[in-house]
Inverse folding.
C-alpha cells in the first residue's frame, strides 16, 4: 500500500480508537452507515447516495434512529 | 431496513404530512405504499477524509471507500436520467491505487463532470480533482503537491526507489494528461524545498492552482453548478434505443452538413 497524504502516517495508521462499531445497512433502499449507540439503538451516521435530493429527505438525516 | 418514525424519538419533529399523503395516494392509485421519489438530473459525489485503499483504516479516520464509490459511478454512467456529475472534494488524499482508480473512473464517464475543491484536495486528491472535464477550486481551498511516500517494509535496494518512482510517475502522468499544467512545472512544485515545514513540495491556495494550470478556475457552488448545467445543455442528446438506426444516421449526417457543433470532449 502506498499512502499519498500530507498527514503524518502515525495519525493515519495509529491504533484504532475505542468507539461504537459502524455498519453498512440499507435504509429505505439507500445504503447508509449506521452506528450503534450506548443505548443499543442504531443511528444513521452517513447516507451513501449521489442524489442530492436524498439529503433533504427526513428519512436519511444523520441521527435518525434506524429500526 | 427502514428509518424509525420520527414520532418515536422524543424531541424530534413528526414526519411531514405530505409524505403520508403521497403514500396513501400511491396505495390507492398504484397499490403500493412506497413513494416513487424523483431524482435529480445532476448527481453529486462527495469525496471526504482519507481515500481508503485495500486496507481498512483505523476508525479515527473519516474515509471514502472505493467499494462504495465505484458502484455509484457505474450507476451514474448507466442511468439515463442522470445527466451530469458534480464531484466535491474535501480530502487529505490517501491510497494511491484507490485514488487513481476513482480518477480513472471519473475521467472515463461519458457524461459531463465538474469537480469542485472545497477546503482541501491534497496529494492523491489532485488527480481525482483534475479527472473531471472541468475543475474548480474555492478561493480559500488548498492543494498540497508533494512526493509520494512508502510505508511498511523498505528494502535498501535500487528497485525500491525505482518502484516508488514508477508509482510517482503514475500520478504525475495522470495529472499532466488531464490538466493544463506542464510536467516540468508539476515536478518543480512537487520537489520544491523551503515551503513545507515537514516535507518537500508546495501548497497551492485557490488562485495559485489556477495560475499554474492545474485547475481551470476559481469558483464555488453556484459557478460549478452553472458550468455543469451549461455542459449538460450543450451535450447532444443520445439517440433513443427505439429509434431506427437508419433514421439516426440520416439525422446525424444532416446535422454534420449544417455544421453542428462537435460533441464536448474531456480535456
Amino acid at each position: 500500500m502506498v499512502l499519498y497524504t500530507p498527514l503524518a502516517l502515525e495519525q493515519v495508521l495509529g491504533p484504532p480508537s475505542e468507539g461504537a462499531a459502524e455498519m453498512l445497512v440499507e435504509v429505505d433502499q439507500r445504503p447508509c452507515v449506521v452506528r450503534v449507540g450506548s443505548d443499543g439503538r442504531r443511528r444513521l451516521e452517513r447516507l451513501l447516495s449521489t442524489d442530492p435530493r436524498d439529503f433533504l429527505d427526513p428519512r436519511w438525516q444523520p441521527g435518525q434512529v434506524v429500526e | 431496513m427502514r428509518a424509525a418514525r420520527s414520532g418515536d424519538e422524543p424531541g424530534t419533529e413528526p414526519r411531514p404530512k405530505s409524505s403520508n399523503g403521497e403514500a396513501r395516494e400511491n396505495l390507492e392509485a398504484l397499490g403500493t405504499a412506497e413513494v416513487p421519489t424523483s431524482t435529480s438530473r445532476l448527481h453529486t459525489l462527495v469525496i471526504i477524509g482519507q481515500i481508503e485503499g485495500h486496507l481498512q483504516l483505523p476508525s479515527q479516520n473519516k474515509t471514502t471507500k472505493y467499494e462504495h464509490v465505484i458502484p455509484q459511478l457505474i450507476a451514474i454512467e448507466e442511468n439515463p436520467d442522470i445527466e451530469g456529475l458534480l464531484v466535491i472534494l474535501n480530502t487529505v488524499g490517501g491510497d494511491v491505487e484507490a485514488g487513481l482508480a476513482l480518477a480513472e473512473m471519473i475521467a472515463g464517464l461519458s457524461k459531463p463532470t465538474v469537480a469542485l475543491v472545497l477546503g482541501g484536495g491534497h496529494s492523491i486528491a489532485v488527480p481525482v480533482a483534475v479527472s473531471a472535464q472541468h475543475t474548480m477550486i474555492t478561493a480559500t481551498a488548498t492543494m498540497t503537491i508533494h512526493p509520494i511516500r512508502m510505508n511498511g517494509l523498505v528494502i535498501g535496494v535500487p528497485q525500491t526507489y525505482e518502484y516508488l518512482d514508477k508509482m510517482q510517475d503514475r500520478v504525475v502522468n495522470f495529472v499532466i494528461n488531464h490538466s493544463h499544467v506542464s510536467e516540468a512545472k508539476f515536478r518543480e512544485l512537487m520537489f520544491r524545498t523551503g515551503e513545507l515545514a515537514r516535507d518537500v513540495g508546495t501548497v497551492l491556495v485557490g488562485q495559485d492552482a489556477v495560475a499554474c494550470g492545474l485547475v481551470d478556475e476559481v469558483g464555488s457552488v453556484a459557478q460549478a453548478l452553472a458550468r455543469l448545467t451549461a455542459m449538460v445543455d450543450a451535450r447532444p442528446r443520445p439517440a433513443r434505443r427505439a429509434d431506427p438506426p437508419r433514421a439516426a444516421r440520416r439525422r446525424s449526417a444532416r446535422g454534420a452538413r449544417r455544421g453542428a457543433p462537435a460533441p464536448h470532449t474531456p480535456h
Remarks:
- Residues 42 and 66 of chain A are 5 Å apart (CA to CA).
- Chain A has a mean pLDDT of 84.
- Residues 9-13 of chain A form the longest helix (5 residues).
- Chain A touches chain B through 38 residues (CB under 8 Å).
